[in-house]
């Protein structure tokens, strides 16, 4: 397979939402070229709605609340979707390049990071009256400039500060209320690809330099550097209070002990990891450039489901609820739900 960086993709999108039961058996229907393919073990799924909207690859997804899904894409736009009606409420304009990251700051405020090197702050109240506002200038609270390269990831560090990771190899800290610049963390030797809050004391950063750094959330010093991966680290996610996982271009997902930072186990199965998420009952879902979605049981480290019908790279996974998740790939936005028997 061609060596494709997670920060170099430029295409259209497909967002697929799967719904699955609490058992270890799964079934998914895929609609490709108006044909339906089904893998059926015990749970059945149906396509409940298909959305067409973005014209370029979707790089980030955020479930803002129970009714709103937000997506950012390569055309510099942000779309706001109604999860109840599956309709696009509004397309936000403001960035001049691809939107790579989205973050909910609080119940009313959204932050977005872009290849234009900026972070924009949006007022969520405008979602309710967005069609009556004229021009993006009235909808943007503030625009934060500080990074010299693409803002690739955002993280709420605590109730006072949020962080931004960039291709300029730095992590910048911003005040939540005033959006004032606080500090710059330097340590990585390549692009920052992902950020994760581990607990109240620490947060982690993953980088294309193949490492994971553990940072103190109070004095912002690097406490530990993990170097087990042999290729760029592209995603990190929390499993529970005691462990987290990291996905890499080395085709592995590694499970780490939060207290000792020792690698507990390593999962292999993809050609190249892009994303992952954790659902209840120790269920890990992974997406990849090999066009597959895999579902793992962490008690046994076994893959219990593999999808072979996706049309392109699985770039992003997000949880909609404990029984539903969404993935981004090419062409369209498809919602999938469990079929009632």
Task: Characterize the structure shown.
The protein has 341 residues and is an all-beta fold. It starts with 13 loop residues before the first strand and ends with a strand. It contains no helices and 31 strands. It has a domain at 26-55 and 228-341: 7 Propeller (Methylamine Dehydrogenase, Chain H).
CATH class of the domain at 26-55 and 228-341: Mainly Beta
Spans where pLDDT lies below 50 across 5 or more residues: 1-47, 128-138
Individual helix count:
0
Distance, first to last CA? 40 Å
Name of the CATH architecture of the domain at 26-55 and 228-341? 7 Propeller
Could you write a compact summary of the structure shown?
Helices cover 0% and strands 55% of the residues.
Q: What is the strand and helix layout of this fold?
A:
Layout: E1 14-19, E2 28-32, E3 35-39, E4 45-51, E5 58-63, E6 68-73, E7 78-82, E8 87-92, E9 99-106, E10 109-114, E11 118-123, E12 140-145, E13 151-156, E14 161-166, E15 170-175, E16 181-186, E17 192-197, E18 202-207, E19 212-216, E20 222-226, E21 233-240, E22 243-248, E23 252-257, E24 263-268, E25 273-279, E26 283-288, E27 293-297, E28 302-307, E29 316-321, E30 324-329, E31 333-338
Parallel strand pairs: 1-31
Antiparallel strand pairs: 1-30, 2-3, 4-31, 5-6, 6-7, 7-8, 9-10, 10-11, 11-12, 13-14, 14-15, 15-16, 17-18, 18-19, 19-20, 21-22, 22-23, 23-24, 25-26, 26-27, 27-28, 29-30
């Amino acid at each position: 397979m061609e060596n494709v960086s997670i920060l170099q993709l430029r295409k259209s999108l497909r967002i697929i939402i799967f719904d699955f039961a609490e058992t270890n058996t799964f079934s998914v229907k895929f609609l490709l070229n108006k044909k339906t393919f089904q893998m059926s073990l015990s749970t059945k799924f149906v396509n409940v709605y298909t959305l067409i909207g973005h014209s370029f690859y979707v790089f980030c997804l955020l479930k803002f609340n129970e009714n709103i899904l937000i997506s950012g894409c390569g055309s510099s736009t942000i779309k706001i979707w109604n999860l109840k009606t599956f309709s696009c409420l509004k397309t936000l304009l403001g960035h001049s390049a691809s939107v790579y990251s989205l973050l909910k700051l609080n119940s009313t405020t959204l932050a977005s990071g872009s290849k234009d090197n900026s972070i924009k702050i949006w007022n969520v109240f405008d979602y309710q009256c967005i069609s009556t506002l004229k021009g993006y200038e009235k909808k943007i609270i503030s625009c934060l400039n500080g990074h010299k390269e693409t803002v690739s990831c955002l993280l709420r560090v605590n109730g006072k500060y949020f962080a931004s990771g960039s291709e300029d190899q730095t992590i910048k800290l911003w005040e939540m209320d005033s959006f004032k610049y606080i500090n710059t963390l330097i340590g990585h030797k390549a692009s920052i690809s992902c950020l994760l809050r581990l607990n109240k004391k620490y947060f982690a950063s993953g980088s294309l330099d193949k490492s994971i750094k553990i940072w103190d959330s109070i004095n912002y010093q690097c406490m530990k550097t993990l170097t087990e991966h042999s290729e760029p680290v592209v995603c990190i996610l929390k499993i529970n209070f005691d462990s987290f996982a990291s996905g890499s271009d080395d085709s592995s997902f590694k499970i780490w002990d939060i207290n000792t930072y020792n690698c507990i186990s390593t999962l292999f199965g993809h050609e190249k990891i892009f994303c992952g998420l954790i659902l209840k009952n120790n269920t890990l879902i992974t997406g990849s450039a090999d066009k597959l979605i895999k579902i793992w049981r962490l008690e046994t480290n076994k893959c219990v489901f593999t999808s072979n019908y996706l049309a392109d790279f699985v770039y992003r996974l997000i949880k909609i609820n404990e029984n539903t998740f969404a993935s981004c790939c090419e062409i369209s936005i498809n919602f999938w739900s469990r079929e009632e028997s």
